[in-house]
Amino acid sequence: MHRRTLLTLLTSIGLVRTTSAATGAPAAPPAGAIEPLRLSDAQWKQRLTPAQYRVLRQEGTEPPGSSPLDREKRAGIFHCAGCDLPLFSSDAKYDSGTGWPSFFQSLPGAVGTRTDYKLLFPRTEYHCARCEGHQGHVFGDGPPPTGKRYCNNGVALVFVAASA
Ligand SMILES: [Zn+2]
């Protein structure tokens, strides 16, 4: 009986760890971990290119295949083009064949999500946790280990290659 209880306990601990590792990013960043960046619309217009502004601040979508970052294969980190917060590692990037840079997980706490109803069916929009700039939508048809597909606008990202 005692042995069985111990085994159950160990298994449940193992399950918690496995689940945590598999899902990667926590649902929300720890409170106070990321200082929000809030600018006026005029300030954003000044700071961003028109294409960046349309995606980041107006939830636009760039044409598929338009971003060179879709074909970026080097090791490095993808930062938010609005505020430079690191959002994705090249370790989580894969070729989804959609024409948009795609990742199976974000860096921990780097993005927030909400449901949007711009199309006939609800989609999960995600945005930078610091400046709330729109990045893309997350879908459930990604590869292991998360099964998620973060479909990102390349124009909303800045790639910083790892130093060799
Ligand atoms: Zn940002």
Describe the protein's architecture and organization.
With 164 residues, the chain is an alpha+beta fold. 22% of the residues lie in helices and 24% in strands. It has a single domain (35-63, 74-161), classed as Peptide methionine sulfoxide reductase (Metal Binding Protein, Guanine Nucleotide Exchange Factor, Chain A, Beta Complex). It contains 3 helices and 9 strands. The strands form 2 sheets. A 6-stranded antiparallel sheet has the order 3-4-8-7-6-5, with no helix packed on it. The chain has a 3-stranded antiparallel sheet with strand order 2-1-9, with no helix packed on it. A hairpin with a 6-residue loop joins strand 5 (111-116) and strand 6. The N and C termini lie far apart (55 Å). Mean pLDDT is 87; it is low at 6-25. Zinc ion binds at residues 80, 82-83, 85, 128, 130-131, 133. Residues 80, 82-83, 85, 128, 130-131, 133 line the site of zinc ion.
Short description:
The chain has 164 residues and is α+β, with helices and mostly antiparallel strands.
Q: Key features?
A:
three-stranded antiparallel beta sheet, 22% helix, globular, binds zinc ion, single chain, 164 residues
Set out the fold topology:
Elements: H1 2-23, H2 41-47, H3 50-56, E1 76-80, E2 86-89, E3 93-94, E4 102-103, E5 111-116, E6 123-128, E7 134-139, E8 149-152, E9 157-161
Antiparallel strand pairs: 1-2, 1-9, 3-4, 4-8, 5-6, 6-7, 7-8
This protein binds zinc ion (ZN).
Residues 80, 82-83, 85, 128, 130-131, 133 line the site of zinc ion (ZN).
Let me know the average pLDDT.
Answer: 87
What binds here, in terms of ligands, is: zinc ion
Q: What distance lies between the first and last C-alpha atoms, to the nearest angstrom? A: 55 Å
Annotated CATH homologous superfamily: Peptide methionine sulfoxide reductase
| CATH fold description | Metal Binding Protein, Guanine Nucleotide Exchange Factor, Chain A
Q: What is the CATH architecture assignment?
A: Beta Complex
Count all strands and give the number.
Answer: 9
Low-confidence stretches: 6-25
What is the H/E order?
Answer: HHHEEEEEEEEE
Shape: globular
Proportion of residues in helical segments: 10-25%
Q: Strand share of the residues? A: 15-25%
What is the C-level CATH assignment? Mainly Beta
Count of discrete structural domains:
1
**Major β-sheet annotation:** 6 strands, antiparallel
Instruction: Work out the helix count.
Output: 3
- Give the helix/strand class: alpha+beta
